TrEMBL record:
GO terms for cellular component: membrane; TRC complex. TPR repeats lie at residues 21-54, 55-88, 89-122, 123-156. Gene3D superfamilies: Tetratricopeptide repeat domain. It comes from Mongoliibacter ruber. PANTHER family: LD24721P. This is Tetratricopeptide repeat protein. Keywords: Repeat, TPR repeat.
Length: 236
């Protein structure tokens, strides 16, 4: 009897020491924060072994898979999260990001639309949807999304840069020049922006001096596409 009681006591200790669902999830998050994505997935899988309906674990697992460029697996995890609870914008946004990486731009926009409807205050949703719309050649809608992002925080050079690309494609070089000037004012290391600025100044407005200065700056920043323009148009 004494041995049986001892064995039962040991079992009870093991049960009491087993990490809870919340503890496993929190450890998975810590692993993700340390960029230990595969280890994080193992913790989220342990959560799901305990509770297959833990939507946060499905979503977090998807994020860890996304960080490893496993986009199809990530999409499956986000879809599982959505199937259990479609009231959070996060898995829709995250799945949209995975579709964006796969260049499935229409699917990305659908998910960003859903995420935006669930929480219209998320600036990243507008920006990423703008990128997808730009790729779909829906330039006016892309500009609209970039403008919303800049209304909240105008000091974002990449947003200005992508807005400039949409404005150029939308046959508005005047606005594009303004966006590109703002881009390089905010980030003077963006060779692509200097290149696009120089090309637009020269081709749309005949501003050779200004255009050549910006093309040479692009070249000095390691943007090789500028070399052909400099060699052809900017030799003294």
């Amino acid at each position: 009897m004494k041995k049986q009681l001892t064995g039962l006591f040991a079992i009870l200790i093991l049960i009491s020491c087993s990490p809870s669902e919340e503890e496993l999830f929190d450890e998975g998050v810590r692993k993700m924060e340390s960029s230990e994505y595969q280890n994080a997935i193992e913790y989220f899988d342990r959560v799901l072994d305990k509770n297959p309906e833990n939507t946060s674990a499905h979503n977090a697992k998807g994020v860890a898979l996304y960080q490893q460029d496993k986009y199809d697996e990530a999409i499956a995890a986000f879809t599982a999260s959505i199937a259990l609870d479609d009231t959070s914008y996060k898995p829709f946004f995250n799945r949209g990001n995975a579709y964006l990486e796969k260049k499935e731009f229409k699917n990305a926009v659908l998910d960003y639309n859903k995420a935006n409807g669930l929480d219209p205050n998320q600036g990243d949703v507008y920006y990423n949807r703008g990128l997808a719309l730009l790729a779909l050649e829906e330039y006016e809608d892309a500009i609209f999304d970039f403008d919303i992002v800049l209304q909240v925080n105008p000091d974002q050079p990449l947003v200005h840069f992508n807005r400039a690309k949409a404005q150029l494609a939308n046959n508005d070089p005047v606005s594009a020049i303004e966006s590109l000037v703002t881009t390089v004012d905010l980030d003077n290391r963006n060779g692509a922006a200097y290149y696009l600025l120089g090309v637009t100044q020269m081709s749309a407005f005949g501003q050779k001096e200004e255009g050549c200065a910006n093309l040479k700056m692009a070249l000095s920043l390691g943007f090789p596409e500028a070399k052909e323009w400099v060699d052809e148009f900017c030799q003294d």
